[in-house]
Amino acid sequence: MHSLDLLWLFGGGLLAGMINVMAGGAGFMTFPLLIATGLTEMEANACNFVALLPANIVGTWVYRQEIRELRQHLPLRLVLAAVGGISGSLLFVYLGEASFHAAIPWLLVFATLSFGFGPQIRDRLHAMPSFDASRWLWLSFLLEFVVFVYGGYFGLGMGIILLAIHSIFSRLDIFHANALRNITVALMTLISIGVFVGAGLVRWVPAAAMMGGAIIGGYGTAQVARRVPQHLVRTVILCWSVTLTVYSFWRYN
User: Fold this and answer.
1) What is this structure's pTM?
2) CA-to-CA dists, residue 88 to 61, 154, 161, 192, 209, angstroms
3) pLDDT in tens, 168-218
4) How far, in Å, CA of 223 to CA of 151, rounded?
């Protein structure tokens, strides 16, 4: 890989770190960038897990007090994250590249729709007087497990989906919901990386270049993130994800 490609990946990592702090959804940008620098789709997916891992580890540390307060159901959710993550990652490895190519457009549709309409679905359910989230806790666990399987296989947009699930089915405030999201996604990502390393899919040099940029970008942006209009950032990400989805249907079908 040329030094110019590594520079592009580092710059993309910087932007990804900023996006993750401000609104989430950085994977929509980093995944095609990794492919553009010469990686296969499967290698790009595996490297994406490595490059964006620090965001969840840092988030787990930042919300460590909230995590200590999340006693109820936390062990169960960690088990769901571990089992779901390893299931999705093994499916990714053993189904192979042809299956992944066929799935990419539909995975992007799922991620884009979840990213775009998750907040609206949450608000509509909360506006229904007859909706009692506590009666549907089992459905929350089932949906979380499905998201972790999806996350182990692909992962784009899963953080947004988890936040939507937590906001619908629990009384967690945004800080505790973010804490739960970070620790479960960090565990799932670590397990998935282990599977991908064992399968020889991780290209460490490009992954490290993007990871370095993401760490610097995320740390630097944390100080000013509250001043940036998040709805504007989300709109830009959503427009890009729609464009990427349309392109993927043209490329892989």
Assistant:
1) 0.82
2) 26, 8, 16, 8, 26
3) 777 777 778 878 888 999 999 999 999 999 999 999 999 999 999 888 877
4) 29
Geometric angle at alpha carbon 165, from 160 and 166, rounded to 5° = 100
Question: pLDDT category, 50, cuts 50, 70, 90?
Answer: very high
Closest by CA to 40, choosing from 52, 32, 28, 50, is: 32
Place of tokens 């770190």: 17
- Per-residue model confidence (pLDDT) at position 123: 72
* pLDDT mean over 80-94: 96
Location of structure tokens 């553009």: 36
Q: Residue 112, Cβ neighbours under 10 Å: how many? A: 23
Report the phi/psi class of residue 40: left, alpha or beta, with left for phi > 0 and alpha for psi in -120 to 50: beta
Closest to 20 (Cα-Cα) out of 188, 246, 210? 210
Which of 78, 68, 227, 88 is CA-nearest to residue 156? 88
Q: At what angle do helices 174-198 and 41-62 cross, to 10 degrees?
A: 140
Q: Based on the structure, what is the number of domains in the chain?
A: 1
Cβ-based neighbours of 39, under 8 Å, separated by 6 or more:
47, 203, 206
Q: What's the domain range around 15?
A: 3-252
- Check pLDDT > 60 for residue 222: no
Alpha-carbon span 88 to 188, nearest angstrom: 10
- The residue-averaged pLDDT of 12-35 equals 78
Cβ(97)–Cβ(40) below 8 Å: yes
